[in-house]
Amino acid sequence: MNKVIIVGSGNAALCAAISALEHGSEVLILEAADEKEAGGNSKYTAGAMRFVYDSGEELLHLLNDPNDQRLEVTDFGSYPKEKFENDLLGFNDGRPLSPQQKILISNSKETIQWLADHNIKFDPIYSRQSFQKDGKYIFWGGLTLEAKGEGVGLVDAQLKRVIELGGTIEYNHKVTKLQSENNTINGVVCEIDGNEVFFKANAVVLGCGGFESSKKLRAKYMGDQWADSMVRGTRHNLGAGIEMALEVGAAFEGNPEGCHATPMDMYMPENGNLDIPFIERKQYRKICYFLGIMVNADGNRFVDEGINFRNYTYAQFGKAILKQPKGFAYQVFDKKVEHLLYSEYFFWDAHFIESNTLEGLVDQMQNVDKNQMLKTINEYNLAVDKTVDFDPTILDGKSTKGLELNKTNWANALDTPPFKAYPVRCGITFTYGGLKVNDQAAVINMDGNEIKGLFACGELVGGVFYNGYPGGSGLTSGAVFGKIAGQSAASKFNDEQ
Ligand SMILES: Cc1cc2nc3c(=O)[nH]c(=O)nc-3n(C[C@H](O)[C@H](O)[C@H](O)COP(=O)(O)OP(=O)(O)OC[C@H]3O[C@@H](n4cnc5c(N)ncnc54)[C@H](O)[C@@H]3O)c2cc1C
After folding, report:
1. Buried-most residue among 80, 130, 366, 433 (CB within 10 A)?
2. Inter-residue contact 123 to 63 (CB < 8 Å)
């Protein structure tokens, strides 16, 4: 029987495993972490997945609870293919859609349906992706569903399905090398308790994450500044899959400096940590800047906080903060928007300062130019266009006028005490550069040919994201390329019989 080895046990690898099993292969998953830490970054996610859909009707059969009463007053809108294309193009710095991006978009809908057919179900993201308006839940930003039980629920459900279909998984099996014979990958070398052990296979699928957790590779590919970034997810994604494949001649694809990085509480733990209860772990993120302003240590704003819905900006603004003097910023809000701030701002371990006056607030700020800080806030307040109504469900056009850097939507004056300021810095989520694959998810070498027997999926596939990321696309990319990689690894062998 055809044997496929899958490296890693996150969303991408597990999708590859389900797909290979479905296509008649024996599947062995090799995972570097122990059982508790397995599941990679996928377990750290909210399980939100972006995909093309034409109407709310199409979502119903994907839902964990299709009888939820709220559905009767929910407007999911739609997310056409063209919108997904534009969302990705918006981060391509003028480049056309890459072949990998086209694969992601055109397979997104059927792949989510495929997951649901394998009993991996979804819930609407009412709390973060909808606002209530006129008695209705209005979804915005094209992102509507998250996996039942968020990232942990997603990975658990996928692993359950793998086991049901007859797959097996070995923990504490760190893959260190790809082995080949007659120019075809025929297995992997694993490090187990300090010993090297060879595992033979007909095909290998790499689904073992990017290099975001490796200080050394971050500095090498992204620049020295990145060595000190905090890491939001697993400590096991050290770039091994990419390095192993490069060693056997694979081509590197995409933007080596590109990454997903978000504003995080200044004092978050240095690494992601699954020991922190899930509900608390995600609370270190601080992404409601669109309701206020962000100001750096020199006392200056540095991004248009309202340039777009936050799931088109949050993955870029971590990097913007890292590049500021001293690598941090303050997010400033007033009482008017407090009820709209996400729960993470009320987390017991959220760090903030508070005052009834702007002067009192600025006075408590540390390591900043206080004069310039106050000047910036006052200038911002004076520049707010008060003739336009604030509406967080749409790009409301309520902007500042005449500033060197305007805020183009949701620009409320900071005029209602108490005022709060949250210190934030950059946390890296995952890297964008990686291996070049074709439409079969086969890894491509420097001459443009397939490396026989080697497939890849998930974070370590390059060319899917260039300089930014519409929220919820990472898991979908992993699922899309995982499904294809599993099928290819299984059927390549069948073709050759
Ligand atoms: C806090 C956080 C929140 C996020 N939220 C979302 C979200 O809501 N929606 C979304 O789309 N994306 C989200 N992302 C991004 C998302 O996590 C990734 O895009 C996706 O999970 C990557 O899946 P993957 O399977 O490629 O990698 P991973 O899930 O990271 O899996 C890689 C696996 O490979 C294992 N591994 C590594 N090296 C080896 C080796 N040498 N041998 C064997 N095994 C190895 C790792 O231990 C790990 O289990 C989030 C990320 C983080 C950190």
Report:
1. 433
2. yes
